[in-house]
Amino acid sequence: GRAAARCGFGAVMGSKNLKAIAVRGDKKPEIHDEENLRENIKKSLPAFIHSKDHMLGKVKYVFTGFVEDGRHGINNWRDGELNGFKENLIEEVENHVRSGKPYLCRHCYTGCVESNIIGEKRSTVWEVLAPLGSQCGVIDMHAINKAYELCNRYGIDCISAGGTISFAMEAFEAGIIAKKDTDGLDLRFGKAESMLELLKKISMKEGIGEVLGNGARSAAEHFGGKSPQFAIHGKGLEVPAHEPRSHNFLALAYATDNRGASHCSASNPRSSEEDFADLMKIRFDAKGTGRMVARRQNYTSMLNSLVMCIFSQAGYAQYYTPGDYQGISANNVVEWFRYVTGRDIDLKSFLLAGERIFNLKHLINLKRGITGKDDTLTERLLKEKRGGTSPAAENLPPLETMIEEYYECRGWDKDGKLTKEKLERLGLI
Ligand code: SF4
Questions:
Q1: Which intervals hold domain Aldehyde ferredoxin oxidoreductase C-terminal (predicted)?
Q2: Statement: residue 2 has pLDDT above 70
Q3: DSSP E strands: which ranges in 96-170?
């Protein structure tokens, strides 16, 4: 299982002593044209995506690709190489392919790279391998899997936990946090036992865990000095396990998403056939990236509203699929939407509805004082090169240039505010 912890959702529930919300009904929602819906879904999805070989093979392609690409942060995003991490990860992935089995969410047609288990548990999960592995300088896969289990048991998010612990490790190495603050824990990078102990302290709000439990940005405010430059985040949310210096569109998506640095809005900017570009070819582009990211954010807003999993979509579930198949596209989803609701909607109006949702959330942010100046990332990701040998080694994302294009295509002014014309076009005034 996994915890619904990202962005503090679990913390809000925990603070209210709320463990779950159960909903029960005795009527089935009506589907306008179920027969054609099922037929169309079957036709749109090639048979190979259901095979065990494909599902497990994806794990290998994707994770090996990620590590070769330099998507994983190293030592709090400070360094470009971590001896032993890649080798251990590849061995772990091979073990996964040998002994894993597909384990999909109920009714899922596609599966994603992490919809597998070994024995009774999920393991080899990217969003823990990087944040609580390489970001903390830890290469011991057993310790990383243990950290995953602890996060799930305690109901905390692996990404934010990793981002906050790696922040603490760098602050410790810089002498900002001392052993007296950590109850004697040696927090240097690579200390797996300390990482596990700190996870427990965070979960139990014990000692330094109470400060770190509020996240890296808040902890940096607490410790002061140079420490804010070690808190790697966007709008207070710790940066997820995909290096923004390795793909410019990732940097833009993290900087502009309403929730902060999230990998779930436009980390893969492909939505429909018209923007099914090869990510490797566009990764360092600036021009066109603003339009593509905005379009994907609009599309993802619709997927969220329809309670559709983003990982079943093009670029996620089918990352590195063989042949020409690109995965489920926005055109498929619009067609299915029509079969379910009977409403005659086209892709343009579908995306317009998503745009309205995205902008409504943006308006809430503006009202709360989160403005254009917050559409950014910690300076390290924009000004310090990653180094090392991956293709990301020398790239710095040109965020300002991309934001200019992004705001223009969103119809926002230079401060990120919606223009009157935009509000009218979206029917919001
Ligand atoms: S693609 Fe989504 S719905 Fe399917 S198994 Fe993965 S997380 Fe679950």
A1: 67-428
A2: no
A3: 101-102, 116-117
